[in-house]
Amino acid sequence: MKNIKLIIDFDGTNYSGFQAQDNAHTVEDALNASISKALGEDIKVIGCSRTDKGVSAHGFVLNFKTESVCPAEKMIYPINDKLPDDIRVLKSEEAADDFHARFSSKGKYYRYTLEHRKFGRATHRHFAYNFPYKLDLDLMREAAKYMVGEKDYRAFMAIGSAVDTTVRTIHSVDIIRDGDFVYIDVKGRSFLYNMVRIMAGTLVFVGTGILDIDSMARAIEDGDRRGLAPTLPAKGLVLEEVYY
Fold first, then answer.
1. Residues 2-94, CATH architecture
2. Which of 7, 8, 50, 218 has its C-alpha lying 20 to 30 A from 107's C-alpha?
3. In this structure, are residues 113 and 128 in contact, taking their beta carbons and an 8 Å threshold?
4. Annotated active-site positions, please?
């Protein structure tokens, strides 16, 4: 039996996240059905991460076990033939027997996209959050320094979430302008539920002057979710890459 690793790209607009769940249409469901049909056997994929409803990915990684005689590097063709248009396999290869898309991961890179103009373009509506107000990017970059390192990030977790620990390691938070777009790039070992979207919202609040850096720093230190900004919409968030 072979262990197959896929790197996929998907538009999360019409899905209730990646992970399979009752009474919901998910990316995992679509993959299981399409790959099973393509290879002629019952396939259950293992994803590198859960994603929220509406979140997309450019470099999502998954693996599955198969007895198919099809060469691993050729599986991309029959699988893509069966997948819906909003999911695409970018690469297929055989992995080590002990490779696990989630537990073998060493880190992830997320990008949150702001379309910084008065009116957002219709063609960007699924992949960027239109923000028409003035932003001080230098203030945002200064605030981002407080979001880097190994620390307790419970202030950046959705209220009501249950985890063993809220300590996480964030390697970098970068603010980049490119024309009408402002990108918030976050790289880290692992993330809490809604963490990147709360970080992005907090940086936007700092950039507009609604939240000052000292107050933000105190909220982080105290673990006070209410002292930070609202969670930004899912559509602006993309999982860009997973590191192994």
1. 2-Layer Sandwich (3.30)
2. 218
3. yes
4. 52
